[in-house]
Amino acid sequence: MADTVRLRPLLEPDIDLLEHLHGGPDESGDFGFFGFRNPGSLRRQWADPGFLGAEGGRLAVAAYDDGRFLGEVQWHQVFQGPASPCWNIGISLLTAERGKGYGKQAQRLLVRYLFAHTRVNRVEASTETTNVAEQKALESVGFTREGVLRGACFRDGAWRDMALYSILRAEA
Questions:
Q1: Domains of the chain as residue ranges with CATH
Q2: How are the residues of the chain apportioned to helix, strand and coil, as percentages rounded to the nearest 5?
Q3: In angstroms, rounded to a whole number, what is the distance separating the alpha carbons of residues 105 and 115?
Q4: What are residue 131's phi and psi, to 5 degrees?
Q5: Three-class SS state of 44
Q6: Cβ distance 56 to 77 under 8 Å?
Q7: What is the reported pTM?
Q8: Sign for the pseudo-dihedral over CA of 124, 110, 78, 95
């Protein structure tokens, strides 16, 4: 299957859509709303210090043909040992763009990008155990399910179990 998405740095015109994506439960979806944020906070983060740094980043998921903003991928550094950093990744797509295979492609591209441009050996992701679509997407990209983190995520008034996945450099 040919790529229909690409990753690119977030541009100023994307920020309104990014704020909308994370602004409320209607667009964030069942698994993406963690409460209201300070309006304009993403715009301020984009302006200073930006969304690309040594300890993490955000990239736009864009339509391959016209660059249209579809959502975002992000990563941040976590440590599994004192000198063992890895990346934890996440994805958010606009409601109208979900269910089209874009997320799977974007996560595959992000894993390739992180292994090509950073020295980590491990990329991990977690999702609620009830988010079956995301679990299938991660597995199709090559992630291995490692287990369940019980009561690890507070969302919508309840503690939720999270499924933990990883992919190693040699597996990508």
A1: 5-171 (3.40.630.30)
A2: 30, 35, 35
A3: 16
A4: -90, 75
A5: helix
A6: yes
A7: 0.91
A8: negative
